Amino acid sequence: MKQKHLIERVMTVIFFICGITAIACVALITIYMVVAGVPAIGKIGIIDFLFGTRWASTADDPAFGILPFILTSIYGTCGAIIIGVPVGLLTAVFLSKIAPKGIGAAVSTAVELLAGIPSVVYGLLGMTLLVPAVARTFGIASGACLFSAILVLALMILPNIVSVSVTALNAVPPEYEEASLALGATPTETYFKVSVPAAKSGIAAGVVLGIGRAIGEAMAVIMVAGNVANMPGLFKSVTFLTTAIAKEMSYAGGLQREALFSIALVLFIFIMLINALLNFFLKGGNKDDK
């Protein structure tokens, strides 16, 4: 008994240390981003920095307005959500409730392969296949635009949404569905009116993971978006917050480098707010259900 009690105490300490380490990492990252990002905002001016529409960091008269980057990231993420979430959810319902074993295994394997493909491969395929196709289809000079970035991001967030949603749907007690069918509901009505609401917490977690990847993606987007500091338009070359940092950090110095850290701070705050809001609205309803 003493040995078991000792093991339990040791494991409790280990778990506590792991939890504190995770919290400490988040705290250190937050502190570093604030320390590195605030000075440039003070020099440029918060209004000019957040709401300025011109970014010319290497010009003789430099400008550091990041409103185009902010709006592009918002529009790109929203577009990916509009396309990716319905497709991902319907795929998850199909895999969990409808698909025969053979087809389900094949689709699940394909989803797992999508999750394992590096971002640079998505970007390379998008640059060589998607960008020219978009240009031909819509008759524009260059297919490297916001629309292409949205399609790539929608594809990239699918594995997160599908895998987590399938796990959540599989965890729904079969008695729920049996009771619904016994009351006369059709299988489709049961899946979408009983199973999906019962699994909404897990589905929400998958959506949050997908949105986090869409907001934070840089490598794939930088290869298909055009990387021009324009105000966002569906068929215009644009720059995301992430790509603004990635494309200039290697040669930046002085105020330009500080401004890039400020962009990273804005992106960090943006992601934290999005995650907090999604968790509040998508998962908060569970408290009312109990």
Structural summary, described in words:
This protein has 290 residues and is an all-alpha fold. The chain contains 13 helices and two strands; from the N terminus they run H-H-E-E-H-H-H-H-H-H-H-H-H-H-H. The protein has helices spanning 2-44, 46-51, 67-98, 101-116, 119-138, 146-170, 174-182, 187-198, 200-216, 219-224, 241-248, 255-283, 285-289; strands at residues 55-56, 63-64. A two-stranded antiparallel sheet has the order 1-2. Helix 4 (101-116) packs across helix 6 (146-170), helix 5 (119-138) crosses helix 6 and helix 6 runs antiparallel to helix 9. The protein is globular. The two termini are 38 Å apart.
Brief sketch in words of this structure:
The chain is mostly helical and 290 residues long. 79% of the residues lie in helices and 1% in strands.
> Roughly how many Å is the radius of gyration?
23 Å
Q: What is the typical, i.e. mean, pLDDT?
A: 87
Going by helix content, strand content and strand pairing, the class is mainly alpha
Strand content: under 5%
Q: Main sheet?
A: 2 strands, antiparallel
**In oligomeric terms, what are we looking at?**
single chain
Number of helices: 13
What's the order of the H and E elements? Answer: HHEEHHHHHHHHHHH
- Compute the separation of the termini in Å: 38 Å
Low-confidence stretches: none
What's the arrangement of strands in the largest beta sheet?
1-2
Helicity level: over 70%
Bulk shape: globular
- The overall strand count is 2
Note the topology.
Elements: H1 2-44, H2 46-51, E1 55-56, E2 63-64, H3 67-98, H4 101-116, H5 119-138, H6 146-170, H7 174-182, H8 187-198, H9 200-216, H10 219-224, H11 241-248, H12 255-283, H13 285-289
Antiparallel strand pairs: 1-2
